[in-house]
Write a structure and sequence with these properties.
The chain has three helices and eight strands. Helix 2 packs antiparallel against helix 3. About 8% of the residues have low confidence. The N and C termini lie far apart (88 Å). It has one domain: Mago nashi protein, CATH 3.30.1560. By secondary structure, the chain is α+β, with helices and mostly antiparallel strands. Strands 5-7-6-1-2-3-4-8 form an eight-stranded mixed sheet, with helices on one face. Strand 2 and strand 3 form a beta hairpin.
Length: 177
Amino acid sequence: MKTRICWAILLIVVLGCQSKNFEEIELSYSSTFETDFSMKISESYQVWLRDHFNRYEFTADSATAPKEGIYYLSTLSGNQQDTLNLFLKNIDFKRLDSRYYEDYKDGREYRFYIRTKAFAKTIYVHRDESPKELDSLVEWLKETRRRVKLVESSEEVYFRSRLWLPTPPPPPEIIHE
């Protein structure tokens, strides 16, 4: 009986000591004439998504494509959680610069934000050559965005990684008497 109690306590201690790789991550990604979106993933693996523009992204099955300007909510599957944690474990974010920039028009750009218990960092990329491990994570997040089951949400989410401000609504109509 004592052996079982010791094993149970040991198991609780070991599982309780495992730390998450993040508290929050965000990605805002834009590619000229293709897509512009923001996504946030919490430590509970909830995903918030808002497409600002998505011209060619979902042409194969446009019925399931996120609509521009709508907030969506989803949750990562167990396999997606494992893959994300593996990516985050293998990237030394403290070593990465905060900015990888080339002065050119068009192309792709993204802003990645990560917050852990130890630090918070934003990394902006608008350059052909950037850290491969970060680019791989971003490509995986883009693909994951296509695969998660999205549910419309009435909750508006603030994305600190947002690249551009959303277009303001049109002015109200003027009524002439």
